Amino acid sequence: MTTLTEAVEKPAHIPDEAVFDFDYHNDPELVANPHKRMRELLDVAPRVFWTPRNGGTWIAIGFEEVFSALRQPEIFSSSIIPREQIEALLALMPDDMPRIPMLKPITIDPPEHGAIRSPLQKAFSPKAAMNQLAEIRSLTDQLIGAVIDQGHCEFISSIAEPLPVTVFLKMMGLPVERLAEFRTLVHEVLIPVFGPYDGPLVLRKVADALADDIAARKDDRRDDILSELWGLEVDGGPMTMDVMEDYAVLLFIAGLDTVINAMGFAVRHLAEHPDLQASLRADPSQIPDAVEEMLRRYSFVVPLRRMAQDAQLGGFGLKAGDRLMLHLAGADLDERKFDRPDEFDITRDLKSHVAFGGGPHRCVGMHLARIELHTLYRQMLSRLPMWRLDPDHPPTYHSGNVIAVDSLNIRWD
Questions:
Q1: 306 close to 79: Cβ distance less than 8 angstroms
Q2: SS3 207
Q3: What's the average model confidence in pLDDT over 141-146?
Q4: Which domain holds residue 89?
Q5: ω into residue 164 within 30 of 0, thus cis?
Q6: Does a structural domain hold residue 7?
Q7: How far apart are CA 335 and CA 269, in angstroms?
């Protein structure tokens, strides 16, 4: 049984009609069945509301409201702590205190954001992602081959987690023999209590684990992303170790967690819908559209924003300094935007979802993620018999900055 966080007092500027009691970490129905709960919220809560839980925060669940916020970083800032506050805090730190990675560019806004993001866009271009296809397919087949004779598996730990972790290691130029160490670190970074973007000491631990390899690629360039990034300029100047460290930690956290959960929700849906499994097996050309509809139907990222100025959203006045959570899962289930949003329909407009975010912070790794998802669907459907959920071990989830699949037991015996 989950325990709700303590409710805080409502600030004076928030009207009573904006208040809806919802704990985005511990809501029992959300943790039990995340997207069912999000659809219920769209029926009973305002499209933008303020909850007294989790320290008191605004939550946007409507498509129009979420999309608007994503595209206006000058109002809805990704810099959760203002630059001047960060600089003041750093000035108070002892000189020998280890540097804390800043997770740029997702924690900064334009115009600075563009100069930091540009090198990542080159490293994760569609062409660069396609160059990984053969490696992704080979690895997917290895992971399936390791469990196929068992007749069952816990999908997250057996396939969904090691697949993107290994792809990440090889693309970045990190030693694959450290796979077990990195998988352990993934679990530590993504502890539900903290979520993937909190915990400065854990971020420092990730940076320390990557530091030697990052430094080595400065002079020993190879065919990997670390080497490529060292060769790029940032805002007209040479690459620095601090920026490289920020990049590496960000990619480690954001890339791994995103793909793992996209895989988990998709495989669960296919387990619950044998008719869709059969259709995709009979006609694999539907797989790209199925990937997009699955991303819409089961969006799971919850970006955090800080109000940089007073503004209206969803009919309410938000004040500068207020926190705002953008529930992409709610946005992509909003019946005002999507007809019959609960239904899985690959004939609908598949380009308008916000599963990868929107605006200047749209996910830079989306091309690689799509290739990993396409490959997973294709190889699982071609190699495994019809799979179903294990009735003795139902799926488990947690929620925070992402709605995450913790465990997913499937059977095909």
A1: yes
A2: helix
A3: 97
A4: 16-411
A5: no
A6: no
A7: 20
